[in-house]
Design goal:
single chain, alpha/beta, Rossmann fold, six-stranded parallel sheet, 37% helix, Glycosyltransferase, Glyco_trans_1, glycosyltransferase activity, transferase
Length: 440
């Protein structure tokens, strides 16, 4: 394949959605292409990451003069004594939806400045989460200047909604986002509809294409207003570097963390366990079910390992042994933790990931979790774990118990299958095959 000039766009380069785009850039660079990851906030030291710098002698982004003209006309009819009525109140939203894409009109960057920051005219552009950096009008303007092929990667749902990153079952993005539950004031609900319409128009004019980041967002993108007519939607899943996350040290992993060989370790966690999206109340309910069903002798063998910056106080209700582990940023140490544990539990009820599902599988750790995000297509019943109906604590307990009761040989098969699933559908090599098809 001929070397391509590729621009990857993301607000940042570390943690979650931003880390995913760093991985995309890293994979493309390793494939031999000329790659720049352009970010608003640079944290990593890699040379291929370049921060956006607005050049002072370049005019600021143009305002939408049509909108300004309309606003001026409205103001002309307002009583002079009450000018405050012309001021649009701050958008009030339900926080659980993460309605962050509030303005698809205003330009945020100057394209000339962006291209000078990057250092070349890209042929291909891949974008992830660009909140507080770029919106769809900025991407359209970049397309006009470069004629590059544009691909948006669904690190969450924002690329095809009227502004929310998580829909909580709302399917407004399928049609027009007309009655947005994320916006609390009835008089402001038009914002979601207008945002979706502008995203749709920009996507049509600039020929945006979507790449799914999980089984769930693949299904959502296929029925979205913006991308439902796209012929092929590839799914890159969680982009796992199997040179770092693998099962090669299972024989020593427990010793590294001073864990006992005769205990069954249940791993769970999140940066913020108070986040309702993570559904930890269902894990607590499931563990209470296990507490009632298992004998005292069996219960003594179980220990819950919680990786988080803080543990939910509700965990005090759990009678099993518990151990808190501070959030781990070093992938080699994280890999050893996954390998040291016997099952990873994912109770997310609204999530495009999480990354921990695929990371655990890559390390040979079976997963039990609700059927959403990457669990949807990465966890296979009776193969490498169990997919559980949403919010069903009883079934979740049953799934955990099934892994707990596996004999040594059957557990080894689950572990081997977990690694194989990642190799086939979530590894860097898998992603390279997809990018090769896109860049042909």
């Amino acid at each position: 394949m001929m070397k391509k000039k590729i621009l990857v766009l993301s607000t940042g380069d570390v943690n979650g959605a931003y880390e995913a785009m760093y991985k995309v850039a890293h994979i493309l660079k390793n494939m031999g292409h000329e790659v720049v990851l352009c970010v608003r906030n640079k944290t990593k030291t890699d040379d291929f990451i370049k921060p956006y710098i607005h050049i002072q002698n370049v005019p600021p982004p143009k305002k939408n003069f049509f909108i300004e003209k309309v606003v001026r006309k409205i103001k002309a009819y307002l009583p002079q004594s009450e000018p405050e009525k012309a001021v649009q109140p701050k958008l009030t939203t339900d926080r659980k939806y993460s309605f962050l894409s509030k303005d698809e009109i205003t330009e945020n960057i100057n394209v000339d400045s962006l291209l000078k920051s990057v250092g070349f005219i890209p042929e291909y552009i891949f974008t992830g989460m660009t909140i507080d950096f770029l919106n769809s009008i900025d991407l359209f303007n970049i397309y006009k200047a470069t004629q590059a092929k544009m691909y948006n990667i669904t690190v969450d749902m924002n690329h095809f909604t009227g502004g929310c990153h998580f829909s909580w079952g709302c399917e407004g993005y399928v049609n027009n986002c007309e009655h947005c539950p994320a916006i609390l004031e009835e008089s402001q609900k038009f914002v979601a509809k207008d945002n979706l319409e502008r995203k749709y128009d920009n996507a049509q004019k600039a020929f945006f294409q979507i790449i799914a980041g999980s089984g769930l967002t693949l299904e959502q993108a296929k029925k979205s207003k913006i991308y439902k007519n796209q012929e092929i939607i590839y799914n890159v899943n969680s982009l796992i570097d199997t040179t770092l996350l693998n099962d090669r040290n299972k024989n020593i992993a427990k010793a590294v963390f001073s864990l006992s060989d005769d205990h069954f370790y249940i791993l769970t966690g999140a940066q913020n366990m108070e986040d309702p999206r993570k559904g930890f109340k269902y894990l607590i309910e499931a563990l209470e079910v296990l507490d009632r069903q298992l004998s005292e002798e069996l219960k003594k063998r179980i220990c819950i390992l919680v990786v988080s910056n803080s543990i939910n106080e509700e965990f005090d209700r759990i009678h099993f042994k518990k151990q808190k582990i501070d959030y781990i940023k070093d992938y080699r140490l994280l890999s050893l933790l996954y390998q040291a544990t016997d099952v990873y539990i994912n109770t997310s009820i609204e999530d495009s990931g999480p990354m921990m599902v695929s990371e655990a599988l890559a390390c040979g750790t079976p997963v039990v979790g609700f059927d959403t995000g990457v669990v949807t297509n990465m966890v296979v019943d009776d193969y490498n774990g169990y997919k559980i109906p949403m919010k069903d604590s009883q079934k979740l307990a049953e799934g955990i118990q099934k892994i707990f009761e596996l004999d040594k040989d059957r557990y080894a098969a689950f572990s081997k299958n977990a690694v194989q699933q990642v190799k086939e559908f979530s590894s860097y090599e898998y992603a390279e095959n997809i990018f090769t098809k896109i860049l042909e």
